[in-house]
Amino acid sequence: MSTPEQQEQHEQISKDSSDGSPKFGRLLIVLVLAVMLIVVITFASEAIYSN
Question: What's the predicted TM-score (pTM) here?
Fold first, then answer.
């Protein structure tokens, strides 16, 4: 069985995840990683095909 504190934390987590608000921090991190991946692919393909 879970303690009341654990139950309260679980309810808070489920409230946070089900309120429908976007997670802008996580979205920003994913966006930055995607841009970095595109930059790496661009430089790699330029290095390969410029010979």
Answer: 0.53
